[in-house]
Amino acid sequence: MTERFEKHITAKESGITAISLLADNTPLSKQKLKSAMANGAAWLESQHGVNRIRRAKKELKQGETLHLYYDSEILSQTADPANLIADEVEYSIWNKPYGMYSQGSKWGDHCTIYRWAEKYFEPGRPAYLVHRLDRAANGLIIIAHNKKTASAFLEMFKQHAIKKHYRAIVEGDLGNIELPFTINAPLDGKPAESMVLEADFNTHGQTTTVLIEIKTGRKHQIRRHLSSTGHPIVGDRQYGAKDTSKNLQLGSVFLSFVCPLNKKLHTYTLS
Fold first, then answer.
1. What φ, ψ does residue 34 adopt, rounded to 5°?
2. Are the beta carbons of 32 and 48 closer than 8 angstroms?
3. Residues 111 and 171 in one domain
4. Within a 10 A sphere around the Cβ of 199, how many other Cβ atoms?
5. 62 and 46 in one domain?
6. The CATH number of the domain where 29 resides is what?
7. Active-site annotation, residues
8. Cα first-last separation, the chain
9. Where residue 183 sits, what CATH number does that domain have?
10. Does 2 score more than 90 pLDDT?
């Protein structure tokens, strides 16, 4: 049975630890509370704003407020490990697996790529998300390790200065189209453009493997665009796939950009 609740507790005096305040005001054991804090379910509201708090023995000041968002189902989730593709010190490139989130929520962040990156290095590094991959997708993703680098990458994405290719397996025969094939169809009232660069039809499986470059970055853009052609991605339960026995067959396989630090062209690929 899922246990889910919120708790908001203000410290009446300075010096009490976060774990003690939570233990005194919730039905959870200290062991469960420490695990929830480590997994990103606790937040501290102070003069510095509202931020996650993971250190159980942090002493609070009078007037500071702890916010606990406890959901046993979310906190019990797991994800396969991400693989480090390249460590560029100021940023790193990862192969995010199917099932791992790009971004967490107030209920936790332990199954996110940025949290994985934070804990991977010794000593640990801060991790900043600069773009996203759907939880159901896999492949290459950039994680920045300081605010300056994160800002540089965010601006590059805004200016479409990073080339991204995705590989998808779609249902049916899309192999007889003239390439490159552009899908220029607005999504959510905004312009959206995807370009099919390669298409290889598999007669045995009645599927087509396509390589796609996106010019914009709308929510679920590739999935929605391919579904609109009558060829949804295999495993895409949300956008009309007939074969939902497999995971979503969509991955980010190519990243290329001029590094904002050394101004050299960097290219990363997955086979």
1. -60, -40
2. no
3. no
4. 21
5. yes
6. 3.10.290.10
7. 134
8. 42
9. 3.30.2350.10
10. no
Which of 11, 6, 5 minimizes the C-alpha distance to 45?
11
Count of domains for the chain: 3
Residue with tokens 């009645």: 206
Show the tokens assigned to 132.
């996203």
- 143, 125, 38: which is closest to 82 by C-alpha? 143
How far apart CA 19 and CA 38 sit, in angstroms, is 12
> How far is it, in rounded angstroms, from Cα 24 to Cα 161?
52
The pTM assigned to this predicted structure is 0.92
205 pLDDT more than 90: no
Query: Looking at the domain assignment, is residue 58 inside a domain?
Result: yes
Same domain (yes/no): 191, 242 = yes
- Retrieve residue 136's tokens: 């159901």
Place of tokens 């189902």: 73
Give pLDDT, residue 194: 97
Q: What is the pLDDT of residue 113?
A: 98
Domain range for 99 is 83-159
Task: Give the pLDDT confidence score for residue 175 in this predicted structure.
Answer: 82
Residues 151 and 114 in one domain: yes
Residue 238: predicted pLDDT? 96
Q: What is the DSSP letter of 108?
A: B
Which of 22, 40, 75 delimits the end of a domain? 75
Q: What is the enclosing helix (H) or strand (E) of 224?
A: helix 221-228
Q: Tell me the per-residue pLDDT of 150-192, one tens digit each, with 9 for 90 and over.
A: 999 999 999 999 999 999 999 999 888 899 999 999 999 999 9
Comparing CA positions, the residue from 109, 105, 113, 229 lying closest to residue 171 is 229
**pLDDT at 249 (0 to 100):** 97
Q: Determine, yes or no, domain membership for 124.
A: yes
Q: Each residue of 42-52: pLDDT tens digit?
A: 999 999 999 99
CA distance 246 to 248: 6
Average pLDDT score over the chain: 96
